[in-house]
Amino acid sequence: MRWGWMRREVAVAEPVLQVRALCIEWRGADGRANRVVDGVSFDLAAGATLGIAGESGSGKSTLARALLGHCRAGSAITGGSIHLDGDDLAALSEAELARRRGRVMAMVPQNPLASLTFHMPVGRQLEEVLRLRAGLSAAASRLRALELFDQMGLPEAERLARRYPHQLSGGQRQRVVLACAVACDPLLLVLDEPTTALDKTTEAQVLELVRRLRRARKGAMVIVTHDLNVVADICDRVLVMQHGRIVEQGPVGAVFSAPREAYTRVLLGAALRVEEASRAAPALPGPALLEVEGLGFRYARPSLLLRRAPLGPPILDGIGLSVARGEVLGVIGESGSGKTTLGGIVAGLLDGQAGALRFDGRLLPGLARQRTREQRRRIQMVFQDPLSSLNPRRRVGDAVMRPMRLFQGLDQREAARGAAALFEELGLEPALLSRFPRQLSGGQQQRVAIARAFAAQPDLLICDEITSALDASVQAQVLDHLAAMQRRQGTAMLLITHDLAVVWRMARRVVVMQGGRILESGATEAIFRNPENPYTAALLGAASRAARAGRPELAEARE
Amino acid sequence: MIALILRRGALSLVTLFLLASFIFFATEVLPGDALDVSLSADEIANMPAEVMARRKAELGLDRPILERYLGFMDGLLRFDLGRTIITRAPVGEIIAMPLRNSVALAGVTLLLALPVALAIAMAAAQAKGRALDNAVSGAAIIGYSVPEFVTGLLLIAVFAVWWPIFPATITASTDDPLSVLLAAAPLAIATTIIGSIAYLGRILRVGLIEVMAADFVERLHLSGIPRWRIIWLHALPAAMIPGLSAAALYAASLVSGVVVVEMVFAYPGIGAELVRAVTRREVHVVQAIALAAAICVVLFNLLADLGIAALDPRTRR
Amino acid sequence: MGAALRRPAALLGGLLVVIHLVVAIAAPWIAPFAPTSLLDAPLEPPGATYWLGTDDLGRDAFSRLLWGGRVAMLVAFAAGAVAVLGGALLGLAAGYRRGGFDDVVMRLVEMKLAVPTILFVAIFVTGFGQSVPVLIVAVGIIQMMGVVRTSRAAGIVLMEQGYVRAAQLNGESGPVIILRELLPNVADLLAVEFALRASSALLLVSALSFLGLGISPPTPDWGLMVEDGMALLESEPALVLAPALCIATLVLGMNLAAEGLADALGLDAARGGGG
User: Fold this and answer.
1) Per-residue buried b or exposed e for A403-415, using 16+ beta carbons within 10 Å of the residue's own CB
2) Cα(C151)–Cα(C106) distance, integer angstroms
3) Measured between CB atoms, does B286 come within 8 Å of chain C?
4) Which end of chain A has fewer CB atoms surrounding its CB within 10 Å, N or C?
5) What is the pLDDT of residues B98-152, one digit of tens each?
6) Region B205-209: what's the mean pLDDT?
7) What residues does A246 pair with on adjacent strands?
8) Average pLDDT for residues A246-262, to the nearest whole number?
9) Across the interface, which of A103, A129, A166 has its CB nearest the CB of B314?
10) Which domain holds residue A454?
11) What is the mean pLDDT of residues A138-166?
């Protein structure tokens, strides 16, 4: 018997999905109701792909689940309608919704590792969907599962089907979850952040697969993401959300080239624009401040038994770089590249196992407590998560004053004055000194962390993904303040990030890392305009898609 | 998998060795020995020093501690648990039957309590937040707040005094076959079961609730897979894993933890022996009982670890 | 605290505890007779003079009931404090330093857990006497194990926080970091642990007294009263049921309060088990 994809006859012109004035509220523990989705309306035609873009807290994930008629515990649809193929999902009973789920509408969840049952082989999980939702027999579902794995680009489908989720790579798991979702060729396919957990190479492969699916299917697709570059790559239309409301919607090309709303402009403004000039400041003359030679690092697994514990794979291998006084060096890499470990070693939180560090000409011991007080003072760090970098039980003023009292021996009053001055330089009201971290916004928290770092008057500042956890609208502000501080104080910086736009804005020189090694290093402008290494080229390509979508003429020049 | 068993087994033996040593030193450190306790103050005052010394030597109470430790370890390896000080009876014979009785009580309790606890936990987890769940949680808190001797006495008061359905204390004796013994102890079993259901039910419920909120459960729900299937084939096995270690630890503690129930119902178990031995300073008996309890704990932990390794593919590579 | 009070269960629990505390503290003034005085009327049934009757030695049961919680509560709360303070410092240090120290601490905890509770106390008590300080220490050590595990888990998570790393790279020493940065951030966890440990301690003390290994006569204690009255269950049930009820309600109150506190603080009381 030949089993093809189950096809549904759909009139192309009529919208398959019609959402009207949808409102979803969430009831908190204290009984108050919050509008998570507020008056959202849009249409989606068959065969079309819609991108729902927004930052965390915009309501996009809640909206995505509502499209399957599902609301997480504590939330409920309080108004509006969702018409899928004529039926209002908001008005159906749970049983009727269950009948449609998996067959008429399906979702590809965000975290494939957590979304697959860890104690069941992946093949069985797909077969379960086929048996129960597509009505296939046991034997037929086994065959079909292998076919689907094949179509998703998974090699050696038979062997892979017997494996458990934790034995597959991230990209493979994503394909498995995709297979489960498209198994019954649903009318509506929703993908929740399909590439967030993947590295750029795998991301490109998965996006290629999604593009293929889009061409092969007759149904509609919705992609929920915070990454505008992904939207630019695959979607026809885009919906920008903020605080539960639609800010702007329309065809991708139109919205990206001429955004009407300020918020959309801010989101797009964060996209990398290599054509414009970099704003990075030049370095100060003189000998190098920091030199790293042949640095290596592996994790040793601790063991109580006296046998030698097996070492893990090398996190860093033969790293060499130098930072001049007053210079900003960008360190680019994805997760797993070792860039955070590098920052930790320079800061003295980890001990490198091979190679040497030299600071101001002198050898720098590995761990902070082995270094001199001056060395500790002169190297400071700002971390990725602003909330966790401040002690929740302490007022933020105390956090900033501590290094002053520790290193400069100032008393309470002098330190308070110094802290107030720092706050003003960073655009924070001195009144905030007596507040607790949870009373400040993310951007304010990060600026407090920066103030704390500068309170020690360091010569080298290590910034580890300092804007990754912030909203797009706030990132620019924090970076501007940081850049101004850096110019005024002449502090050198090791700017560690995966965001190329940040590097373009702040760093004169850049180093590209992958898998614990340095692939390329040199002047930012030179490398970004003409990447030599194919990996760097891929990174740049992925990062500038949104910018290019708004400038179709550039798209020609680059591809 | 074999390597895992061997490694865990080796670690268990090391732990057992350390525990045995600890037990030895802890008990031998006790000031005053059996002789001091078994004789009255007058006799001690009147007994001449040499006679005292001779009697101590007979009982081996005067050798240096290291010698006694080696003797202890040597005895253990030969499964010789020594003799009681006062009556010179072999310790092994004294504790064998009570040990059997306590293990039987613990075993029956667990066998009956575990399925009930599981059923209650599942019902509560499914009805989370609603009346049934709150009622179950409330009952559980009461169940483990009330001390076991109180539960036992209440059961006696209700079912043996006011409505004389069951006997208040055990009428069977230590060496009776298990079937007779257990049949004569319905109230004792009921007491331990109540406590066990409360404790295990609570832990299992929390584990289940956590699993039900997991991402893979949500994916299955969004795929339209029926709820009962999600619970029985996906969520339950996942929740059993942490539940298994908790249950194992509890099972181990049950063997020695039923002391109070044994005292209330005069059940001829190892707890009663322990209290008797402590009051009489019968060091060897105390050591033997402590060792038996330690073996139970180590054994159950090992079984739980292996069970988890078998159930959870993430622990193998 | 406000959120905790809004839950009926927690409120009930808190009320029970407060009532018991008040009664225990006020006992010397409100008890009709002295708890240890031998009145010439053994085994009197409950009546006008002796509200709960008298026991076999002729002591007034009601007065003994009012006094009965004092020592047990003292031991329970003190042992709870010992457990929480000792356990927190040990657990945080283990979670902070990891490596060899952590391994040793965890092995010790596991081994200690393998020793049956009654036995552990029995050894302590026979070695050092059956006094209140000895009981506090023994029960405290037993309860400490659970606190060590939860503090250690919390410590491991806190280690990853930015402000701990910032302190480390400024060269602040381990003990300073543990006391200044870590301890204040586990304060709410420790509050819940204290309530749980104290209630476990109370259960343990009562059971020990019942077995004759805990509080020693003639000090009035509920556990002792239950043991004394057990033989007379049929004739004088009040002698057994009244103290039993007191123990049950106090422990229940403490557990309800602990659960309510944990709920309000967003913590999970069931996870902190063990010991």
Assistant:
1) bbbbbeebeeeeb
2) 12
3) yes
4) N
5) 888 888 888 889 889 989 998 888 888 777 767 887 888 888 888 888 888 888 8
6) 86
7) A241
8) 91
9) A166
10) 288-558
11) 93
Question: Average pLDDT of A144-155?
Answer: 93
Of residues A306, A414, A392, A297, the one with CA closest to residue A344? A297
Which tens digit of pLDDT belongs to each residue from A18-49? 999 999 999 876 778 889 999 999 999 988 99
Inter-chain CB proximity C166 and A389 less than 8 Å? yes
Task: Look up the CATH number of the domain holding residue B274.
Answer: 1.10.3720
* Residue among A96, A113, A119 with most chain B CBs within 10 A, to mutate: A119
pLDDT at A253 over 80: yes
Per-residue pLDDT tens over the stretch A198-250: 888 888 899 999 999 998 888 899 999 988 889 998 999 999 999 999 999 99
* Residue the block writes with tokens 């990447």: A531
CATH number at residue A202: 3.40.50.300
More confident site: A387 or B278: A387
Q: Dihedral of CA A107/A110/A114/A120: which sign?
A: positive
pTM beyond 0.90: the answer is no
DSSP state letters, B235-289: IHHHHHHHHHHHHHHHHHHHHHHTHHHHHHHT--SHHHHHHHHHHTT-HHHHHHH
CA distance A451 to A423: 7
Could you give the CA distance from residue A201 to residue A199 in angstroms, rounded to a whole number? Answer: 6
Say how far apart CA B148 and CA B192 lie, in whole Å.
7
Q: In what order do the strands lie in the sheet with A288-300?
A: A311-324, A288-300, A354-359, A362-363
Contact assignment for B313 to A101 by CB distance below 8 Å: no
Q: CA A274, CA A424: separation in Å to the nearest integer?
A: 33
Complex ipTM value: 0.82
The angle formed by the CA atoms of residues A425, A477 and A439, to the nearest 5 degrees, is 75
Two tokens, residue B30: 């006790």
The residue-averaged pLDDT of C205-234 equals 84
Tell whether the model's pLDDT for residue A11 goes beyond 50.
Answer: no
Side-chain half-sphere exposure of C104, counting CA atoms within 13 A: 6
* Model confidence at A273: pLDDT above 80: no
Residues of chain B above pLDDT 70, percent = 87
Residues A210 and A354 occupy one common structural domain: no
Q: Do A348 and C99 touch (CB under 8 A)?
A: no
The span from the CA of C264 to the CA of A455, in Å, is: 37
Q: Please give, one letter per residue, the 3-state secondary structure of B120-139.
A: HHHHHHHCCCCHHHHHHHHH
Cα–Cα distance for residue pair A516/A514, rounded to 1 Å: 6
Among A110, A118, A250, A113, residue whose Cα is nearest residue A194: A110
Q: Per the CB < 8 Å rule, is B278 touching C122?
A: yes
Query: Does a structural domain hold residue A278?
Result: no
Contacts (Cβ under 8 Å, ≥6 apart) of A457: A377, A407, A408, A489
Domains and CATH numbers, chain C: 2-30+53-272 (1.10.3720.10)
Judging contacts by C-beta atoms under 8 Å, the chain C residues touching residue A380 are 169
